[in-house]
Amino acid sequence: MTITNADIPRVGPETPGGQWLRRYWMPVGLTSELYDIPQAVTIMDEALVLFRDGEGRIGLLGQHCAHRGASLEYADIENAGIRCPYHGWLYDVDGKCLEQPSEVGGKEFCAKVRQVSYPVRELGGLIFAYMGPNADNPPPLPNYSPLIDHGGIRQIEPVRHFDYNWFNFYENSADPVHVWILHGASAYGDQTWGDRFFSADDPPDFEPVETPYGMKIVMSKPAADKDGLVVDEMSLGFPSILQVGDTEFVHGKEDPQKLMNKGSDIEHFMFMTPKDDNSFMMFTVDYYTGPDEKFFEHLKEMRKREEPKDDRKPYDKRPLMPFRGNVRAEDIVTQGTQKLVGERQEHLGTSDRGVIMLRKMVRDAIADAAEGKDPKALHLEENAEGLVKLDSFVGVRAE
Ligand code: FES
Ligand SMILES: [Fe+2]
């Protein structure tokens, strides 16, 4: 099967890209936000409903009732499952029909009905779903390091929603050049660590490197006051996880000397889950193992200072203005105005080598999934502590 770039951003159940993504566990909600009412979610072009039954079991079912299609977003929660408000059909978390109050006679009809359902698991505050072909025997849900308690503190940000294709965000992390250009007047421009590591006049070298979990971009620059290289890595975990290694220094403004001596104490995972071809959600989880008990309060304070500078001219009605000065707003303006990968006119240069390599790796993974093979990083190795890490190193490394 020939996979092209145009297959990458499509996420529906009949598309090769969507079938590839469905081979992995994907976050679909936060434990802290799942109350005693059903929650409508669209995941990879499928309308679903997430709920917790009266016994505490979590279910992810098709949103439209198998009877005549009313939305289960308005269903009632019961101990045994979820009851459609229209005619009272009751489903358990596995999609099994338990009751049809309007049907007389035995349970034969009930036994014939099955509501779409997907396996779910909770881990470290996130709810993951597996929507792939092996529902009875899914791959293991990886013990992603920031989701497992190991002596530090965790922070889960509110879920962020984006109105453009997920892959625009993902491949942006394979493109370090934008960091010192697009973000050169915001947090990355302000930073003082690593001898002005991201200076646009003297940018770091970078190389994309394949890893067992996906790939990483290794940026490096000779250290000025000592031997070795200052290194800053961004990781792309398959299929849709990002880790930025330098949050502590770029946004937390941690003492640059600490970076030179010890490196970073934070893991910063961003899990992306496509809602459809034109929108996705992001679940951001940080895990901090350093000495500052108030680290996340400090980080929040520092991030508040990163408001976009509003120097709009009175006639400037462009909808995404202002954006300069805030890294996240800068990313949205640029990624959100690109068309889908495979549908854009592009002229790729040498500085796009990370993006080119990533797209090839993703096309290969999609092809593997289409051929029934396990795609890359479906089974990830744990370290000695039982954790699955993305090794985004930030610090000084011997040359
Ligand atoms: S539509 Fe749900 S029970 Fe009839
Ligand atoms: Fe960015």
Rounded radius of gyration (Å): 23 Å
CATH superfamily of the largest domain: Naphthalene 1,2-dioxygenase Alpha Subunit, Chain A, domain 1
Shape: elongated
Tally the helices.
11
CATH topology of the largest domain: Naphthalene 1,2-dioxygenase Alpha Subunit, Chain A, domain 1
- Beta-strand portion reads 25-35%
Ligand roster: FE2/S2 (inorganic) cluster, fe (ii) ion
Q: State the helical fraction.
A: 10-25%
Characterize the biggest β-sheet.
Answer: 9 strands, antiparallel
Q: Return the average pLDDT rounded to an integer.
A: 94
CATH hierarchy class name of the largest domain: Alpha Beta
Number of strands: 20
Structural class: alpha+beta
Question: If you had to describe this structure to a student in words, what would you say it looks like?
Answer:
- The chain is 20% helix and 26% strand.
- By secondary structure, the protein is of the alpha+beta class.
- Strands 12, 13, 14, 15, 16, 17, 18, 19 and 20 form a 9-stranded antiparallel beta sheet that branches.
- A hairpin with a 6-residue loop joins strand 6 (82-83) and strand 7.
- The longest helix is centred in the C-terminal third of the chain and has 18 residues, at 353-370.
- It is elongated.
- The model has no long low-confidence stretch (mean pLDDT 94).
- The structure holds FE2/S2 (inorganic) cluster (FES) and fe (ii) ion (FE2).
List the helices and strands and how they pair.
Layout: H1 16-21, E1 25-30, E2 39-43, E3 46-52, E4 58-62, E5 76-77, E6 82-83, E7 90-91, E8 97-99, H2 108-112, E9 117-118, E10 120-123, E11 126-130, E12 153-156, E13 160-162, H3 166-172, H4 177-181, H5 187-190, H6 193-196, E14 205-211, E15 214-222, E16 229-237, E17 241-244, H7 247-250, H8 256-261, E18 266-276, E19 279-288, H9 295-304, H10 327-335, H11 353-370, E20 394-397
Antiparallel strand pairs: 1-11, 2-3, 3-4, 4-9, 5-6, 6-7, 7-8, 10-11, 12-19, 13-19, 14-15, 15-16, 16-17, 16-20, 17-18, 18-19
This protein binds FE2/S2 (inorganic) cluster and fe (ii) ion.
